[in-house]
Amino acid sequence: MKILVVDDEKVIVKGLAFSLEQDGNEVDTAFDGEEALERIRENDYDIVLLDLMLPKLDGYEVTRQVRQFSSVPIIMLTAKSEDDDKISGLDCGADDYVTKPFNMLELKARINAVMRRVAVRSQSGKGGQKQKILKVGSIDLDIDNRRCLIAGREFNLTSKEFEILTLLCQNPGVIFSREKLLQIVWGEGYPGDERTVDVHVRRLREKIEPNPGAPVYVHTKWGAGYYYRE
Known about the structure:
Blueprint: E1 2-6, H1 10-22, E2 26-30, H2 33-42, E3 47-51, H3 59-66, E4 74-78, H4 83-91, E5 96-99, H5 104-124, E6 133-136, E7 139-142, E8 147-150, E9 153-155, H6 159-170, H7 178-186, H8 195-208, E10 218-221, E11 225-228
Helix pairs in contact: 2-3, 6-8, 7-8
């Protein structure tokens, strides 16, 4: 894998890079938010390990800007352990978070879990099959190229936002519990909790719904889960 490690503490960067390179990975480094953005724009990384507290641009802002042009997986490294900080990281587009100080084996397990999900998505698009377009109501989902168009307008979704929307659109009217969405989209071995689903659904609604407070596509069945109905 080609990995970008971003942290302003050079000792941490050096230690992470050494450990990851011992496993055969190629590692680039950056020490502030602006440098991280520049590297992500110029390179094709498999995953980014991003510290929250960075000079120039913090991890939240870096993630928000990255999500405007890339769906590269991002694991946020944060010394903040409060739930609100973790949810804020997921809310702006991070795929996972690890709280400092972290165990290197745990971090590698999180990286592997994220990459397994990416590998499954990549394999689903192979095999020489013709391009698959899912049309449901006014929504067109280009499954192979992971593009979302609603009434002809394209919306830039992250990988998980796209997967949630695709799953719901493939099963209109079917209610998926948060637990079931977590198992299907993130995988059964994902260590996060069900609030992760709420964060991503809220972010999805903010992008595609004319009024996120009164959704017309992704609905909530209180106490049961989420479903698609237009």
